[in-house]
């Protein structure tokens, strides 16, 4: 654990303010759920809660099936990190932070697909030179909680309707699983 040198007092309602700089670097937004841990040394630890992280083994199995059916590598992310990978080496992407571009796509509940007309690319994971072919946000109970995507090859063709539908249906399915 890393000390920040910041000290905060608890107010009369038992609240403590997490400094803006820490919220920014840890990507903690208003309304984000935090898990609270304690240990025998008297430490209290706040950790961002990832509802989709609870489904990591399920999402990994789902990603493997989707990769085989779709013929592309599949990545499942929560709002901050890669949770599951199939079709490419896991150590390349697993646990890495999502890119600001993907974060913005999720925030705006937008889908992404490589098309012939625009030729735009989106790098979904920070520090990894791979691009999304198709991406859709995972929405559970009205909240965006992650993203599902196919990863494009070296010289990608435009995404087909089939690839777009597979990712849309997969994202909707994972969202439903989180609601139950």
UniProtKB/TrEMBL annotation:
One of its GO terms (biological process) is sporulation resulting in formation of a cellular spore. InterPro entries: B_subtilis_Trans_State_Reg, GAF-like_dom_sf, SpoVT-AbrB_dom, SpoVT-AbrB_sf. One of its GO terms (molecular function) is identical protein binding. The keyword Transcription regulation applies. The keyword DNA damage does not apply. Keywords: Activator, DNA-binding, Repressor, Sporulation, Transcription, Transcription regulation. Pfam families: MazE_antitoxin, SpoVT_C. Residues 5-51 form the SpoVT-AbrB domain. PANTHER family: PTHR36432, STAGE V SPORULATION PROTEIN T (PTHR36432:SF1). This is AbrB/MazE/SpoVT family DNA-binding domain-containing protein. It comes from Youxingia wuxianensis. The lineage of its organism: Bacteria, Bacillati, Bacillota, Clostridia, Eubacteriales.
């Amino acid at each position: 654990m890393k000390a920040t040198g910041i000290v905060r007092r608890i107010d009369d309602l038992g609240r403590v303010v997490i400094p803006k700089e820490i919220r920014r670097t840890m990507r903690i937004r208003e309304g984000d759920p935090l898990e609270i841990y304690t240990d025998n040394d008297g430490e209290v630890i706040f950790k961002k809660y990832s509802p989709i992280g609870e489904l990591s083994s399920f999402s990994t199995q789902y990603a493997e099936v989707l990769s085989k059916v779709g013929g592309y590598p599949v990545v499942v992310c929560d709002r901050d990190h890669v949770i599951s990978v199939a079709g490419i080496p896991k150590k390349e992407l697993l646990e890495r932070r999502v890119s600001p571009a993907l974060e913005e796509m999720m925030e705006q509940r937008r889908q992404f697909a490589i098309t012939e007309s625009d030729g735009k690319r989106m790098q979904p994971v920070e520090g990894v030179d791979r691009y999304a072919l198709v991406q859709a946000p995972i929405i559970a109970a009205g909240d965006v909680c992650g993203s599902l995507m196919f990863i494009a090859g070296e010289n990608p063709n435009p995404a087909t309707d089939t690839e777009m539908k597979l990712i849309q249906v997969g994202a909707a399915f994972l969202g439903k699983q989180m609601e139950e």
